[in-house]
Amino acid sequence: MPELPEVETVARTLRPQVQDCRLGAAQVLRSSSLHPLSLPLERLAGARVAAVGRRGKLLLLDLDPSAAVDTALRAATGLRLAIHLRMTGRVRTVEAACPPGPYTRCVFALRTPAGEARQLFFDDVRAFGLVLAATPDILARWSFWRDLGPEPLDLKAADFAALLRGRGSALKAVLLDQKVLAGVGNIYADESLFAAGLDPRRKADTLRPAQSARLLHCLQDVLLRSIAQRGSSIRDYRDANGDVGAFQNSFAVYGRGGEACVRCGRPLQKLRVAGRSTVCCPHCQR
DNA sequence: TCCTCCCTGTTC
DNA sequence: GAACAGGGAGGA
Q1: Residue A90 in contact with residue A1, Cβ under 8 Å?
Q2: CA nearest neighbour of A25 among A117, A101, A158, A157
Q3: Backbone phi, then psi, for A41, in 5-degree steps?
Q4: Which nucleotides of C are covered by protein (CB under 7 A)?
Q5: A167: CB within 7 A of chain B nucleic strand
Q6: pLDDT digit string (tens) for A185-203?
Q7: Which residues of A belong to the active site?
Q8: Is the pLDDT of residue A252 over 90?
């Protein structure tokens, strides 16, 4: 389940594989994996991958269309390929002769700067993930993109306090809401709430300033520590090199319901908050 | 603001 | 053979 640290790791590992490559023929093997707002992927042929980045949980390939086969696209600025990995999405590059796997949803031919022919695969077992080729005007029509909240790693305590103000829903629901913060999912919501000593069910607008500052600090700390460990691999997650992350070995609560709290030794409680499985310590989190 | 559904492999 | 995993869309 790629969240911010995993998508960041995918971007970092994919970058050296696709930077300055030219896109060639593209194929969508499962139509539902292409976002309805997307440009047809074949229109990207000839575009160069200028940069690989991330926004929230979205992987972003910035494209330079100046040599696109589609002459109407050559003047486009801000052309991008956005990929949402959702639960089981993966990207990888493979040699030109490699056939698609059973879960390969999109294929792009690639030409490396050295002239080698390769392919970029988007694989996704559960087919929740999405690919979207877009100009800025298309992105502006995508409500998910338009409403995406700020990057948690860029936030200051005062900004975070303002985001929580007037929100009467559970802290965990607020952390998971991509319109509030971009990139936090179930793992890092649970881990940061434990680190901050806050009950996931507590109403967001009941935090004192020191508590919201502490929560932001803990969230940023957890995200940065996970990025340093190349993310968390629960089941499916792999980076663009096919490697697993290591942060799952540092989980204090996620997936540890019933086990002893690392802080007080009492059993961790498993419950449902905001429709998600949630693990917390009833003693340490208030 | 909360619930259900989408999707499929894994676990019980 | 059902429950579960869960991000986000869409509806109540």
Answers
A1: no
A2: A117
A3: -65, -25
A4: 4-10
A5: yes
A6: 999 999 999 999 999 999 9
A7: 2-3, 57, 276
A8: yes
Q: Which residue carries 């179930």 as its tokens?
A: A186
Task: Dump pLDDT digits (tens) for A55-89.
Answer: 999 999 999 999 999 999 999 999 999 999 999 99
Neighbours of A92 (CB within 10 A): 21
A170 CB contact with strand B at below 7 Å: yes
The backbone region for A250, taken as left when phi is positive above 0, alpha when psi lies in -120 to 50, beta otherwise, is alpha
Query: How far apart, in whole angstroms, are the C-alpha atoms of residue A131 and residue A108?
Result: 12
Give all strands of the β-sheet with A117-124 in edge-to-edge order: A89-95, A117-124, A104-111, A22-28, A48-55, A58-64, A80-84, A130-134
Torsion of CA A73, A34, A116, A102, to 10 degrees: -160
By CB atoms closer than 10 A (0-12, 13-18, 19+), residue A90 is: buried
The two tokens of residue A102 are: 């059973």
In strand B, the nucleotides that come within 7 Å of a protein beta carbon are 1-10
Beta bridge partners of A94: A119
Q: Is the pLDDT of residue A20 over 90?
A: yes
Q: What is the DSSP string of A48-115?
A: EEEEEEEETTEEEEEEEGGG-SSGGGTT-SS-EEEEE-TTTEEEEEEETTPPP-TTEEEEEEEE-TTS
Residue type present at position A37: L
CA-nearest of A96, A98, A100, A94 to A123 is A100
DSSP A3: -
Q: How far is the CA of A249 from the C1' of B7 (A)?
A: 28
